[in-house]
Amino acid sequence: MANHRREVPTLKSLSKRQWMKIVSAFVALGMLSGAGLASRHFYESQRPISQVTTYSATDSNALAVSRGTDREDLRGMSADTSYVRVTINGRSRMVLGTDFTDVKSVLEAGDITLEPNDTVSPSLSTKVNESTVISISRAGADLETSDADIAFNTVRKETADLPKGQEKVETEGKAGVMETTSLVTKVGGKIVSSNIFASYVKTAPVDKVILVGTGSTAPAPSTSAGSSNSGSGNIGTTTPVGEMQQWAHDTLLSSGHSEADFTATVYIISHESGWRVNAMNPSGAYGLPQSLPGSKMSTAGADWQTNYQTQLKWFWGYCNSRYGSIQGAYAYWQTHHNY
């Protein structure tokens, strides 16, 4: 009977030439794999990596992070938080909330009041999601931008580089700039309504820094420019300006905090909101500490939208929770220009 079984070559039956072909094939495959990995690593190293960065009100376009005790992303305190873009006469801002159902609920959360002749698209009863863009057109209204000064503070820092009792101005103070955009409606050239649309720190104020000597009366050894140790571990004592700062100062000291804690508070709030209770970045950040969303401050009080004391209490609690102290938040701000 004929044998129809197919003979299968074994490793022992392979010729020397066949072995060389097999080895050559494996070498070629190895070279191709190595080249592929090298090419991949090269292109990955050349491709910029987009990372989420922290948020500061001094950047009007920043939408990266939400201020909470765990530093969550833009969604806020929980996965239920959502955000919807609202455009009024061509200018946009974000509104954040946890219970959006329709267009009307978004406008209420954003404290956006409609006037009788406003045109809203989509309609107030339209269901919304995060891809929804609400457009409002207000006839006879224009977006007007104005600048206002942010007062600077005077900070006194002790230094052994000056004889005791001697003072020297290290830095001259300079007012900051608060930019406010309002939707203004006029009739016959007369303003009948003006609603703030956005208000944020355009340019932070520069404190006036006065060095106060604590050294001996003998002339101090000459030092090169910029080598003074006045700023090393010494953030100074700040003189309060206005009612809010005076309350913050007295409250902190009466609760066992230090002058340095107040200095840290003034520095951060001045850079974040210019001490405007209703400061509102287009991203949705709100208030003195620029909480994002502002509703997070409700944990400190139901009047978080208008009460500076409630906002400051939330701010101090956030600093202690996130950085261990107010000065810890200040140190982080100095390095990262946000907190």
TrEMBL record:
<protein>
    <submittedName>
        <fullName>G5 domain-containing protein</fullName>
    </submittedName>
</protein>
<dbReference type="InterPro" id="IPR023346">
    <property type="entry name" value="Lysozyme-like_dom_sf"/>
</dbReference>
<dbReference type="InterPro" id="IPR011098">
    <property type="entry name" value="G5_dom"/>
</dbReference>
<feature type="region of interest" description="Disordered">
    <location>
        <begin position="217"/>
        <end position="236"/>
    </location>
</feature>
<dbReference type="Pfam" id="PF03990">
    <property type="entry name" value="DUF348"/>
</dbReference>
<keyword id="KW-0732">Signal</keyword>
<dbReference type="InterPro" id="IPR007137">
    <property type="entry name" value="DUF348"/>
</dbReference>
<feature type="domain" description="G5">
    <location>
        <begin position="136"/>
        <end position="216"/>
    </location>
</feature>
<dbReference type="Pfam" id="PF07501">
    <property type="entry name" value="G5"/>
</dbReference>
